[in-house]
Write a structure and sequence with these properties.
The complex is a heterodimer of chains A (about 280) and B (about 110).
Chain A: H1 5-24, H2 28-39, H3 44-69, H4 74-97, H5 100-119, H6 134-138, E1 143-146, E2 152-155, H7 160-177, H8 182-192, H9 197-221, H10 227-247, H11 253-276
Antiparallel strand pairs in A: 1-2
Helix pairs in contact in A: 1-2, 1-10, 2-3, 2-11, 3-9, 3-10, 4-7, 4-9, 5-11, 7-8, 7-9, 8-9
Chain B: H1 2-23, H2 43-50, H3 60-87, H4 91-109
Helix pairs in contact in B: 1-3, 2-3, 3-4
Classes of the chains: A mainly alpha (about 280), B mainly alpha (about 110).
Chain lengths: ~280, ~110
């Protein structure tokens, strides 16, 4: 395929990846990279660079709305960003030395893990501020968020150190694979630190952008960012995520999730097989 | 923040069209990894080249500039949050913001 048709096709595919990502709650990055590699035959490293930029675009686009709602917890976000950004730099540096086929295998495994995590149930019992981890109190982490009736409800924060460690791993994966690793961030905040789900998603959205920015500087230096590829991917995913968010209230989300999580598992296996060849 | 995202998105879109007009009919070069030319690495060179309209090969610099603006968004957010904590005289979080910002700066400028 020649230009400009190639870029148009990539843009359209990215648009649908963005819509899908928003609808089934996976980030754009983890869908778009296998698409670029398996369907368009693009080198994994370029695909990862493009996906990472699209992750920053969607995070920046969505963060403004979350900040306005006052749900995201900036203190938790910033504190945990120490772990994710350091992890991301480690991961990105690792990505530049690892063999590409090994990266493809790791990508496939992470994709399967993401599917598994997004199948798990999201709501644990809520923690009261008084029951927080003492370290959380010292770090001023507990907060409150506006409920549906406008009344503010306070929440506590558990297990700061384990949460911080899982965040570091999420950061490494983000840098290593060029993904937002939102599913792993949600795991740390929701399951381990026992934050309310709304706070988790809003805060992880802020963190995803900052984490991705920590990897992208290194990708930029190593020449993983080809503007001719990044442009259609970032624009496509950004537009797609916007449309997807609008469709969310009316779409048959449960059916879509079952169908596409199955499809994504299949893609994950394809990535692993490609890596093993 | 939304405005910033939109500005960089439109710059990328404009750059993409500008780049494609010079490359109609060519094969895209994304299939084989070759690294990017050195001039795409430094923002200042990038800005200079973006407005140097002679070289068709360097037309992608405009899109790259838009991408670069997009990438600046998260560090900027951390910086603003940090400034907010300084104003609040919250030393601990001013310091935490500074650490995160330092890691981001390391990634871009090491």
């Amino acid at each position: 395929m020649t230009e400009p048709y190639f870029d148009i096709a990539v843009g359209v595919a990215s648009f649908f990846a963005g819509v899908l990502g928003a609808l089934i709650g996976l980030g754009g990055g983890i869908i778009i990279t296998p698409l670029l590699v398996l369907v368009f035959g693009i080198d994994l490293r370029y695909a990862m660079g493009a996906a990472l930029c699209s992750v920053i675009a969607t995070s920046s686009g969505a963060a403004a709305a979350y900040l306005r709602d006052g749900i995201s917890n900036m203190k938790i976000g910033l504190f945990l960003c120490i772990a994710t950004t350091i992890g991301a730099v480690c991961g990105a540096l690792l990505a530049t030395v690892l063999d590409q086929s090994l990266l493809a295998v790791i990508f496939g495994v992470a994709l399967l893990a993401t599917v598994f995590l997004s199948l798990g149930k999201k709501c644990g019992p809520r923690l009261l501020p008084g029951d927080s981890d003492p370290l959380a109190l010292k770090l001023e982490l507990p907060g409150e968020f506006p409920g549906p009736d406008g009344e503010k409800s306070a929440y506590g924060v558990a297990a700061v150190v384990p949460g911080f460690c899982v965040m570091w791993v999420a950061g490494v994966l983000s840098g290593l694979l060029g993904i937002g690793s939102g599913a792993f961030k949600v795991l740390a905040m929701d399951q381990i630190m026992k934050l309310p789900f709304k706070v988790t998603t809003a805060t992880s959205n802020f963190m995803i952008g900052v984490t991705a920015a920590a990897s992208v500087g290194i990708y930029l230096k190593k020449g993983y960012l080809d503007p001719a590829l990044v442009s259609p991917v970032a624009l496509g995913v950004l537009a797609g995520a916007f449309v997807g968010a609008k469709l969310l209230p009316v779409a048959p989300v449960k059916l879509l999730r079952v169908v596409f999580l199955t499809a994504v598992s299949f893609i994950a296996v394809q990535m692993i097989l490609k890596g093993l060849h | 923040m939304i405005i910033g995202t939109m500005i960089s998105a439109s710059l990328i879109a404009a750059g993409l069209v500008w780049y494609l007009t010079a490359h109609v009919g060519q094969n895209p070069g994304d299939h084989i990894f070759s690294g990017e030319p050195k001039f795409l690495e430094k923002p200042i060179d990038m800005a200079r080249r973006a407005f140097d309209f002679d070289g068709a090969v360097e037309r992608r610099s405009i899109a790259m500039l838009g991408i670069f603006l997009l990438l600046l968004n998260p560090p900027l957010r951390v910086l603003l949050a940090g400034a907010g904590y300084v104003l609040e005289k919250n030393r601990m979080y001013a310091l935490i913001s500074a650490v995160v910002f330092a890691v981001l700066a390391f990634s871009f400028f090491w």
